[in-house]
Write a structure and sequence with these properties.
By secondary structure, the protein is an alpha/beta fold. The chain has 2 domains: 153 residues, SPOUT methyltransferase, trefoil knot domain (Alpha/beta knot), CATH 3.40.1280; 81 residues, Trp Operon Repressor, Chain A, CATH 1.10.1270. Helix content is 40%, strand content 16%. The strands form 3 sheets. The chain has a 5-stranded parallel β-sheet with strand order 2-1-6-5-8. A 3-stranded mixed β-sheet has the order 3-4-7. A two-stranded antiparallel sheet has the order 9-10. Helix 3 packs parallel to helix 5 and helix 8 packs across helix 10. Bound molecules: adenine. The site of adenine has 12 residues, from strand 5.
Amino acid sequence: MDAAGPRLAVEVVTLFPDALRAQLAVGVVGRAIERGIARVGTEDPRTYARDVHRTVDDRPYGGGPGMVLKVEPLATAVAAAAARLPGGSPRIYLSAQGRRFDQAAARRLAALPGFLLLAGRYEGVDERLVEEMIDEELSIGDYVLSGGELAALVVIDATVRLLPGVLGDAESAEQESFGGGRTLLDWPHYTRPEEWRGRRVPEVLRGGDHAAIRRWREKQALGRTSERRPDLLAGQELTSEERGLLAEYREERESCRTRSSRK
Ligand code: ADE
């Protein structure tokens, strides 16, 4: 580990620390942890359950289905995990009721020295824990997961890959269309072979004209975004060059469709 400590420290409060750690050991995040750029610790509330059965959940007041995570073991686990983080690290509860996690949120978290993630299970956690110990609630999308662990992995992955030195130049986060100031979908990618089942890699990508390649990629990114996620373009002012690229993309798509319907 770096003498100055990791650039980002994360703590996850979870009932399934082993499952989480297995996933954190691989890929870009695994490498960042190995190199000491990020550190991810875990805290299992079950450690702090006081009865012989190590109970961490109970039936909801008011009735209804499912179980609720009890406040006392969770509170002790959150405090223990928070004590290992730099001062001012926010405590984040992952739930479907949270504000939407997006690339801007990932950038905000990546700028911090640390944060804590609380992964819920069952119907959720006792609301008093949220009121007393949580700074914000985040959701990774409009669907209900059976636990916050997958959400924690999503938040950690999207954040850690933005830390300086984690991605090499070739895979730089800056080059991605969700990076930087623009919010566009990515352009299509190809590798060898040059032809597969009669489908050829676009000619422009095989030549060495870097300006033409950049232009083609930008056109694809704009075109795909306008087709698949027009909501992303709604809030953005396009330059006249970008409007031109978009018009070109649409014309090309249209002539492609006309050609294939004539076949
Ligand atoms: N826990 C359950 N569903 C979730 C979601 N959509 N996002 C984050 N945490 C969750």
